[in-house]
Amino acid sequence: MSNSSNLNKVNSLRHVLVGSLIGTTIEFFDFYIYANAAVLVFPKLFFPGSDPTTSILESLATFSIAFFARPLGSAVFGHYGDKIGRKATLVVALLTMGISTVCIGLLPTYASIGVIAPLLLMLFRFGQGLGLGGEWGGAVLLAIENAPPNKRAWYGMFPQLGAPIGLLLSGGTFLILSDTLSEESFFDFGWRIPFVSSAILVLVGFYIRLKITETPSFVQSVETKKQVKIPLITVFKSYQKELIFGTLAAVTTFVLFYLMTVFTLSWATTELSFSRRDFLIIQLFSVLFFMIAIPVSALLADRFGRRLILVSISLLIAIFGLFFSFFFSAESSSLITVFSCLGMALMGMTYGPLGTFLSELFPTEVRYTGASMTFNLAGILGAAFAPMIAIWLAKNYGIGYVGFYLSGAALLTFISLLLITKKTHQF
């Protein structure tokens, strides 16, 4: 098949939608079922102790491991994504994540094998992070490197939609299990079902990923011999400002998301007397606002520019953080639902154009590595310890300081966005 026919194939919206969205949906589903289990299941089964708070913090520590694995995944998969192509790298990243997830679902608990259980849990959590570290960047590039110049943010929002869809699937799965199984059955085998059943989704994604065609930008990079020997070294050597300020520009996205999901789920079900089922319903409803806001922000970003939208939303997030205590300190379901919907809508507005913005910071020959590294380094700074920091702040200083934490992160992102100097790179 000729190169020209390949280009015509990959430039269709259908290929971009299916190829980029399906993978990130599966990856984020796998990632989020761990987040739910880290709050609802693992403290009891893998970190049993007399102090529930300590058990939750230990469980959340394993949750953070994936964020340290993600930059490594970015370096490894980014290297091959920039050297041999987006397609093959995306397939391997998906398998890495999927196999790790299924293994978690098959793990014996602490009661069966003692301390080996949490150690194996940490190992497979590392594998999840490694896979996602390579998945996100490739999926975004599959979209925007096939996009018309005036629709890059619109195409780039398709893989971003994988986050709310994956969250809906994971939260919905745990909600169904909670409704259909007794507490004893849920902790005995029910929690394993979403981890093991993800194998079906991975096989579907694997099949679809094998059908995608290489992006025109990468093909052109190969033909013009623009590839570099070691993309990671080139990024650190020639694109330091883009890497640093791009990372800081993405920090608030992670802080906001994991405060609105992991922290709120933990706090509401332990300190505010919400049942697991009731709060999962609130979260699932709020995710709809997350999903709707992503395409809205992408349309605005194509019209007014990525930076302007991200700067504006960062200021709104900083203001939102100041009202954290007002909404979340009471046990009012109505107030907390409004709070969750507002927070997730802001999340969608900042998340929608983020992938496109970060990808445009780097040229084709290092774009997979550069975009992935900025996104996943931001994950370490903004998400790895965010739930633990938030719980510690809330316990010691009150829920209002969790909001101040969010506002501080938003101001850091605001300043970073103003300092980034974007160069024009060929797509």
TrEMBL record:
CDD domains: MFS_ShiA_like. Keywords: Cell inner membrane, Cell membrane, Membrane, Transmembrane, Transmembrane helix, Transport. The chain crosses the membrane at residues 12-35, 55-78, 90-113, 119-144, 156-177, 189-208, 243-268, 280-301, 308-328, 334-354, 375-393, 399-420. It is found in: Cell inner membrane. It is a multi-pass membrane protein. Residues 16-425 form the Major facilitator superfamily (MFS) profile domain. NCBIfam families: 2A0106. This is MFS transporter. The lineage of its organism: Bacteria, Pseudomonadati, Bacteroidota, Flavobacteriia, Flavobacteriales.
